[in-house]
Write a structure and sequence with these properties.
The complex is a heterodimer of chains A (about 120) and B (about 260). Chain A is mainly α and about 120 residues long. Chain A is built from five helices and no strands. Helix content of chain A is about 70%, strand content about 0%. Chain B has helices at about 10-15, 20-35, 40-55, 60-85, 100-125, 130-140, 145-175, 180-185, 190-215, 230-255, and strands at about 90-95, 95-100. The model of chain B has no long low-confidence stretch (mean pLDDT about 90). Classes of the chains: A mainly alpha (about 120), B mainly alpha (about 260). Chains A and B meet through helix 2 and helix 3 of A and helix 4, helix 5 and helix 9 of B.
Chain lengths: ~120, ~260
Amino acid sequence: MTYAPFAAVAAVIGLLAGLFGEGGWFRVWWKVILGGLITGLVAATISAPISAYVFGGVTGSGMDAVVAIFRGMGLGILPSSFAQGVSSDPLDKAITFLVVWLILKALPQRFVARFPRAETVR
Amino acid sequence: MALSLYLPRPSGLHRLHPLTKLWLALFLLICGLALPGVLGAYGAFVVLVVPLALWGAVLRPLLVAAARVVLPFAVSLVLVQGLFWPRGTPLFGWGPLSFKLEGLLFAVRSTGRILMVVSSFLLFALTTRPDALALTLAQRGVPKSLTYILVATLQIIPRFQARAAAILAAQQSRGMEIHGNLRRRLRALLPLIVPLVLGSLVDIEERAIALESRGFSRPGPKTSLLVLPDTRGQALARRLLVAAGLALILMRLWLS
């Protein structure tokens, strides 16, 4: 519920994941990682202003050590928040996308075929 | 395992139309973000949120839930912005590390904002039935697939937790060890995740069938057993809330 202000970010991540799936990017592993990295960059860009304005630039988690480093280097709150996002979100989303890809591979073909547009991911 | 934060109480706040409460929560959110000064958001919390929560008989659960969310942010803010505020006025500290006045003031102000963001949402969620919210949105012409996504998202984490707890209990009853050192717990992860993911995917299909059997995609108006009483006073209150919220935003833009 704290993350309610980030709803727009989640929506964009979902949209991008859907577009990458539609474009057949979920068929090959390296395109999956690339899609995750791009999604992470976009997510960091949209979430930084929200994080800086609503949450004072912190996330309430261990990643705040990264924010502290950038603040200590003299960066402003918005740039620090963006730098924290860029340093963690692409990796985070790439791993998430890869896990999704692994699940898709592990699912029985018969089961996947029951979903609409299953052919775009297999 | 509860599927929502909703707490049924015989209060006037609970009986308000969901739309009224939605606008109220948005207005409180704007108050938290737009009120000036270090203590502006705290003022809104004491003057608006606390009396409303008392009226709704949900003050205690609201405070407990809000504290659980806000405290990690408060700690982070004091440490990150308090210690690492560039070129701030040092107040006290040890060696090269010192708390800066500007950073601490910023941390206090930001904590107030987060408190208002969280408590405005909590006030709405604690006093509004999820199905009443879905019905309201549908009645106001929000596409039903969008309404479904919204309500399903709110329920997905409690559903996942309930399913995970059931799987863990089942695996434990078959003799799987889930406590102990890191390696043992990692080994317990796979027998949890596989049924969790597969089960949730099967769940999607079951939900789709359940929704279709209730005429989800059937066009045209539908009758609902749930009746949401609305009054002219509340309609007026909603307009006033919208106007006051817009005024606050304009004031904020004009001030800065």
